Amino acid sequence: MTDDVDWILADAPVPYPEARAWMETRATGVAAGDAREAVWLIEHPPLYTAGISADPTELLDAQFPVYAAGRGGRYTYHGPGQRVGYIMLDIGKRGRDVRRFVHAVEGWVIAALERLEVKAWRAPGRIGIWTEDQGQEAKIGAIGIRVRRWISFHGFSVNVAPNLSHFDGIVPCGLSEFGVTSLSKLGNPAKITDLDAALLAEFQGFLDVL
User: How far is CA 124 from CA 53, 103, 128, in A?
Assistant: First the structure.
């Protein structure tokens, strides 16, 4: 960890409205110079979020609360067994290149998964993290970033051991032709704490490419 970025772990699932309010407050503080940059690793209770490009027809069954997220992207699911990472960093002092930032976040998650012996990759034209599940390409991680006053917030999610049937209520990220998977479904025994350790180990490398 760097001396400039706080690494914060939530010890219980955080309701989405509370998490969004916390992120926005922290991002505002970072922009004003009143708060340190932060990475916040949490879980949510079961819910769906709608990004700014969400198509209402892709909400198939609102079996859980649905929240407007204000981030990029479309619908996604969050819930127990999924690690969500919210990233509040000053992109203004790191090149002011949002596309490069998103690419770097993807690379950070891919490197962390590699530490857990999962081969994952980017897919041209599809934001997110992909892997192979029973011979088919499937999504194991989602990316959704917002930038305001050159401060990032929102971030990524990685499926460790969520209830994958909960994704059936949406067309995840608008991609009906691809499934979703998890470390557990792949037979990987890693737990959320293992993923956290891998993310921490790869964090400096992520910062170095910004």
Answer: 19, 11, 10
**CB of 151 within 8 A of CB of 30?**
yes
**Stated length of the chain:** 210
Residue indicated by tokens 């599809």? 126
Q: What's the first-to-final CA gap in the chain, in angstroms?
A: 16
Q: Which of 173, 195, 198, 199 is catalytic?
A: 173
pTM listed for this prediction: 0.96
Of 123, 157, 187, 131, residue with least CA distance to 43: 157
Whether 82 sits among the annotated catalytic residues: the reply is: no
DSSP the chain: --SSEEEEE-SS---HHHHHHHHHHHHHHHHHTSS-EEEEEE--SSEEEE-TT--GGGB----S-EEE--SSSSEEEE-TTEEEEEEE-BGGGTTS-HHHHHHHHHHHHHHHHHHTT---EEETTEEEEEEEETTEEEEEEEEEEEEETTEEEEEEEEESS--GGGGGGB-GGG-TTSEE--TTTTT----HHHHHHHHHHTHHHHHHT-
- For residue 1, what pLDDT band results from cuts at 50, 70 and 90? low
Give the model confidence (pLDDT) of 125-136 as tens digits: 888 899 999 999
Q: Phi, psi at residue 80, to the nearest 5°?
A: -55, 140
- The structure tokens listed for 111 are 């490197």
Whether 2 shows a pLDDT value over 70: the answer reads no
